[in-house]
Amino acid sequence: MDLSEAIVGNEYTVVGIPPNEPCLNCIPCIKLRIMELGIMPGERIRIEGHHLGLWIIAILNSSNRASSTVAMREEEVLGIIVK
Q1: What is the structure's pLDDT at 31?
Q2: Which CATH number does the domain housing residue 30 bear?
């Protein structure tokens, strides 16, 4: 399932991130930004909120507590595959 279809309050595991699409206006590219935020394959996340085009995502630790919380724009969550 694509992360843009996720339901607020549910927990997911990141399976894949979008492939790198080379362009001239992308420094750093969206894939690099996603990884810098800590969204990598295998990470467990919880959707905390979605409003005004922003996704609030908690990255969970092994105790299912939020180790960090990030805000991502709509175009950044497109293509992130979760289960």
Answers
A1: 81
A2: 2.30.30.90
Domain count, the chain: 1
Stated pTM of the model: 0.85
Residue 20 in this model has a pLDDT that exceeds 80: no
Q: Which two tokens stand for residue 33?
A: 């930004």
Within its chain, how far is the Cα of 70 from the centroid? 8
pLDDT band for position 32 (cuts 50, 70, 90): confident
CA distance 70 to 9: 15
Domain housing 70: 3-82
> How wide is the angle at C-alpha 45 spanned by C-alphas 72 and 62, nearest 5°?
140
